Input
Amino acid sequence: MNRTKLILAAVALVLVGGLAVALNPRSPESVTHVQKISLDHKMYASAKELKDDSDLIVRGTVLDNGRTVDGQPLHTEDGKEVPGTPTTEFGVKVVKTFKGTTAANEITVVLTGGVSGDTRFEAEGMPWLAKQATTILYLHLGEDGKYYPMAGGAAIAAQKAGKPDKFTLPAEVNGSSAIDISESDL
Output
């Protein structure tokens, strides 16, 4: 009898969990389409050039999985409305500042892309932030008080495994090859 109740409770829990996922339009399980986005951006020949153009450079820890904000609708030449490109806002804890200043120890970093409805919008070749990841971010301060990675969103250096002070910027920063950096370079 107790085993039957346990099995029924487990089945109910699975059904409730499945319903919650099905009703959450932002869950990965609800994505049925992927829309690739091509971003045109300034290329940087070196980490120094990227550093010179940045408002803020920090080592940070990503605090969450991001929150997608739907883009403002756009209008074609014939007046037809089309959906805008979504962005995703991430909370980042500032661990160390290498350039610039910020009064807050937590900042909002905005990336192009995210999930809107049943579609995941992905900027081609651009890195994505992952919860609890440690990164070096080369940022521009937007008029909205939020931060945007330089090089069209590519200026996010991933930490090398087992090397806490070594990072790699993706090839999208300069259009040809990854750029290795260390904290002492900053």
The chain has two domains: 1-30, 32-185.
